[in-house]
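Structure tokens please, single chain.
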Amino acid sequence: MRLLVIVLLFSWCSFTAYSQPCKEEKLKDKKKRLILEGFIVQSELDKLLPKEKGIVSLGQSTDSLGRQIWSLSPLIQYSYKAVKELPYRYYNIEGRIVLIWDEATRTQLIDSVQRQQRIACLEKLIGDKVTPAPPPFEEYWDWETVMDSTHQGPVARPLFDSAGNLVKKRVLIRRQTLVADASWPGTYTYIFEKDGSVRRVPR
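Here you go.
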């Protein structure tokens, strides 16, 4: 009888965990939390994330040497809904949502009903922190040339109003060569070395 109760309890917990459309994870690692907090602050200073808008994308993987790799990007649009591997786990860092993509996200099979439930959960969680992707891309982004130790060449920065909403440029100047050669300045890769150190490289 006791064994039956344990089996039923385990099955119920597993079903409950799986059936959650989206789930908050607790980040207990102080070093990783500091990395996320620092990335968010830097993205705000670089005007890639307004104070009350935007979320963060966290891609987790492991390289051939067994090192954990993080890829962090600021997100200001609903682009996360367009990908096949829809995330369902997230961190909440001082009110900033960090969506997690990892091996579990890439290999989990979900049907159309589960996908819609997950999208609804994420929409409720994120609210108006992101906006629909406005076409064409160039009309809502300003291009500039940056030459420093981190970025060299043309980069793009979104244009926001005082409320943190994307705004359209008054005059559209198309620079196709610049757009084609542009690099995204907000994405960084963090490599967690086996000795406990962390190395950051621009993507």
